[in-house]
Specification:
The protein is α/β, with parallel strands linked by helices. The chain has one domain: Zn-dependent exopeptidases (Aminopeptidase, 3-Layer(aba) Sandwich), CATH 3.40.630.40. The protein is built from eight helices and seven strands; from the N terminus they run αβαβαβαβαββαβαα. A hairpin with a 4-residue loop joins β5 and β6. The chain starts with a helix and ends with a helix. Bound molecules: zinc ion. The site of zinc ion (ZN) has 6 residues, from loops.
Length: 236
């Protein structure tokens, strides 16, 4: 390569370096929690596949999307080892956000009554006992907005006035629920959000949520929402 040819290369290198500097200036640090463990796998899908595996697929895709966008990620419960709820939320005390990924079921009596297909959609939870509630709520809004833009609908199953549910809806349009005593949310020393991606007890929804395309689309929606909310914080 001649000296003349090296000039564009130098310019490209400078462009790459400056974009990296810009990227790192906005880089966020996010704790991505995979809900449950292999030993205590959470809900069971209509097919029998357990929730932990859905959470693992989605949180793996989410962590990749965040890293690609320049963020730093620490993962909890992705290694398959047992970990308590309290331990999960304090692994990255200097992170900008703790996000816990789950997939939903419904009351057993509704499953027994053949009502599986009545419930579908995502839901987002925040705790007013979290020490950074306001920022948690902003992140919940941004994530939910992106889920809706990706074509998903909020589920109001957790707001149903039955014992064990009846969670207050802080934002009905976006499907954001208040759940003050959710342990990972209230014990996190940083802003924290829990996302139920969809209802795997519904066989139609489970089939859809199993597809790699759906996982890619929804992980990108959550990642975009996270980056939007942390950018909002940075601009304050
Ligand atoms: Zn769960």
């Amino acid at each position: 390569m001649s000296n003349h040819d090296q000039q564009p290369c130098k310019r490209i290198l400078l462009c790459v370096l400056s974009s990296l500097v810009i990227q790192s200036a906005h880089a966020a640090y996010i704790a991505v929690d995979t809900g449950h463990t292999p030993l205590h796998p959470g809900a069971t899908g209509a097919s029998g596949r357990v929730e932990y595996l859905y959470n693992l697929d989605m949180s793996t895709a989410l962590a990749k999307d965040l890293v690609v966008s320049g963020d730093r990620v620490l993962r909890t419960a992705a290694d398959g080892k047992e970990i308590s709820l309290q331990e999960r939320s304090i692994q990255a005390p200097d992170a900008d956000l703790f996000v816990s990924i789950h997939h939903d079921s419904m009351l057993q009596e509704w499953i027994n009554a053949g009502r599986r297909k009545e419930f579908s959609g995502y839901s987002v939870f925040v705790s007013k006992k979290n020490s950074h509630y306001e920022q948690s709520f902003v992140c919940a809004q941004k994530i939910a907005e992106q889920m809706m833009l990706a074509g998903e609908k909020p589920s109001f199953y957790h707001a149903t006035p039955v014992q064990g549910e009846n969670r207050p809806l802080i934002d009905k349009r976006l499907g954001i629920h208040q759940y003050d005593d959710l342990i990972v949310l209230k014990t996190a020393p940083i802003p924290a959000v829990l996302v139920e991606i969809g209802v795997i007890a519904n066989p139609d929804e489970e089939t859809r949520l199993s597809k790699p395309d759906t996982i890619r689309r929804l992980s990108l929606a959550v990642a975009t929402g996270i980056n939007a909310c942390l950018k909002t914080k940075a601009q304050k």
